[in-house]
Amino acid sequence: MKRVAFAVAVLACAGSASAQNYRFPIELPSSGTQPYVTAYRDQDTGTGLKDWNCGTTTYNGHKGSDFGIGSWPVMDAGSRWIVAAADGKVIFVNDGCDDHCSTGACGCGSGFGNYVRLQHADGKTTTYGHMMKGSIAVSLNADVKCGQHLGKVGSSGNSTGPHLHFEPRNSSATSLEPFAGSCGASSSLWLSQGSYKGLPGDQCENPTPPEVDDSSLASESPAGTINVAPGASFQKSWVLQNTGNTTWSASGGYTLAHTGGDALGGSFPAALGGGENIAPNAQKTWAVAFVAPTSPGSYSGDFRMDRAGKGAFGATLHLDVVVTDSGGGGGASGGGGASGAAGSPPSGGAGPSGGGGSMSAGGKGGTPAVGGAGANAATASGTDVQGGCACRAAPVSESRLEWLALAALALLRRRR
Questions:
Q1: pTM for the whole thing?
Q2: What is the span of the domain harbouring residue 307?
């Protein structure tokens, strides 16, 4: 009962749907043998032969349209994909029949051999017969899109060589002529019928636009060149906008990849989170940790979004880094200058000045001590000594010799 109710519901919905038209149901190869017509539907209800164009490209009682692919060598080399002629639902699948029938009377699968049948929204069905054993790519009750792979061309069932038997039927299971012509249907079921013995067009009614992966840079932080110390860790963030028509996800193979220059210790490719899905027009922030090289200098790297099997795409992200060795010290702290302190001269005589002021490197010379008539300590050419390369403190040994000489002279004068 459930199966009957389901069928009635489908047909009830289909009654209000607009008629669907079909694309050619074999995927055309980019090179090699192209598919071709082997037999049209027979329009003659008796023993005669008549195709839709009033020709005889048919055989007696044939209810479908047959398309060959180039006989056994093409099939054995991988064959050709059979595709859905329109959106639909899989309502029947048969597999397991030998796919090298050449007698035309192998009988498996009600004569269709290995086959798939689709139910369409307008109430019609399409049958795809004589497939290769084990090639069926859809399952029962699955929804399929126009152009989706169903299976491969074979020679199973009542077949004499590799070909596709394509057969539309109405809601009463009566086979339909898809070609319009003088001896055919009044209107074509093909989106683009083509010429007699030519192939119908292979475009779907509402073709899915081709996938476009693209991105643009919305912002970055920090912007511009980054200055860091050798070996320092730092972070750079880029905000990318998805400007394509695909959704970025980890399962889809989307990553941020290093595409040139210096990787600077970053971990690449950088992966999306397991639950992340970046839809078209949405943004993704990539915050990447880097480590500066240990040698000072300028470094740069380039990064782009990448899709596994497709390659890099979208905006190129730049990272510019200058590594500066900031560990160099300034001038050495000034040490205490040598004190010019000298011993006290003997009392009663005019001796040298008491003590020279201390001098600091880079500073002004100490102020000489005022004493009796004697030479000022720590002076050069009678003026204060300024800091810098001209600054030189007299060695202690020279000061002591000068004092001893003066003391001896004073003693001699006293004895006189």
A1: 0.53
A2: 215-224+233-287+300-320
